Amino acid sequence: MPHWLQLMADSLPSLLWAGLIFTIPLTLLSFVFGLALGLATAIARLFGPAPLSAIARFYVWVIRGTPLLVQLFVIFYGLPSLGILLDAFPAALIGFTLNIGAYSSEIIRAVISSVPKGQWEAAYSIGMSWRQAMSRTILPQAARVAVPPLSNTFISLVKDTSLAAAITVPELFQAAQRIVATTYEPLILYIEAALIYLALSSVLSQLQVRLERRFARYGGMLEANA
């Protein structure tokens, strides 16, 4: 067996284990929390009082205007100067959640705004409250439009988690770095890590296609019933 292939075979279990224990949980938790934060931020911007809407706009402006790596460094290395000490994984989780929250809020705000005003009027005409109209009429329609951009955000997050290596989270990319430090074979190991990220992204892309098709059928059923 060639040396490079043997090295990849030997290092594969360690890389996959790091991805399973750290990369995948960090991705899933960050996306779920970030999506909830994004929904709250979007609703605050669209329907909240002026002070709350201003805070939401400021949050989105700051996060979208600064690099994710800098945000992670501020949380992990900067906050201790204020007496706030965080372990690497929680610091990364907070950083990715805030980042996803800002970007997803813009997507959610746009898709909610794209729902025709007649849908609100129809919901109110049958006695729905604002909360009922939002949860039963507006959000289901907005979700169908939001699937592609939010799926792209999720796939990007999988790759962005490699930045957590910079704050010592032992995820997939840092596992590759540690093996490189002992084998002195950066090209082979980094290509292997890239291939694993590529495989994950490819699987998620296929899931995205299926999800889009399912929502498209759901949308067709709604239009037929209408």
From TrEMBL:
Primary localisation category: membrane
InterPro entries the UniProt entry points to: AA_ABC_transptr_permease_3TM, ArtM/GltK/GlnP/TcyL/YhdX-like, MetI-like, MetI-like_sf
Membrane topology summary: Multi-pass membrane protein
UniProt GO cellular component terms: ATP-binding cassette (ABC) transporter complex
Membrane-spanning segments: 20-46, 58-79, 187-207
Residue ranges constituting the ABC transmembrane type-1 domain according to the UniProt record: 20-208
Cell compartment(s), UniProt: Cell inner membrane; Cell membrane
UniProt KW keywords: Amino-acid transport, Cell membrane, Membrane, Transmembrane, Transmembrane helix, Transport
Pfam families: BPD_transp_1
GO function term, MF aspect, one: L-cystine transmembrane transporter activity
Coiled coil: none
Family as reported in the entry's similarity comment: Belongs to the binding-protein-dependent transport system permease family. HisMQ subfamily.
Entries under PANTHER family matching the protein: L-CYSTINE TRANSPORT SYSTEM PERMEASE PROTEIN TCYL, MEMBRANE COMPONENT OF AMINO ACID ABC TRANSPORTER
NCBIfam families assigned: HEQRo_perm_3TM (TIGR01726)
UniProt name for this protein: ABC transporter permease subunit
Species this protein is from: Rhizobium phaseoli
